[in-house]
Design brief:
95 residues, single chain, 5 strands, 5-stranded antiparallel beta sheet
């Protein structure tokens, strides 16, 4: 998949989760806050054709840049399958 396509997919993923999780800006960057206060965002690893979710336990840790990597998700699958896999991880992380 081309770099542009992966970045467009990343944007579509973020838009989809904007409907479910509270979007916030931290240091000018876009993040989401789950009901339990976990902060997360999505990153595209273009060379690996994957998207990962990075997590911080709370806003304070997010502001300090203290994030942990979640699973990698293959971008070469249907959009709905990708969304389902990411949502399952968010649920497993109790976001």
């Amino acid at each position: 998949m081309e770099k542009k396509s992966i970045l467009e997919l990343l944007e579509k993923v973020a838009i989809r989760f904007t409907n479910k999780y509270e979007p916030v800006k931290i240091n000018g960057n876009d993040f989401f806050v789950g009901p339990n206060g976990t902060v997360f965002y999505f990153v595209a690893l273009i060379d690996f054709e994957t998207i990962i979710v990075e997590y911080a336990d709370n806003l304070e840790k997010a502001e300090q840049g203290l994030f942990e990597d979640g699973d990698q998700f293959d971008v070469n699958q249907s959009f709905e399958s990708l969304i389902d896999e990411i949502q399952k991880e968010l649920d497993n992380e109790n976001v």
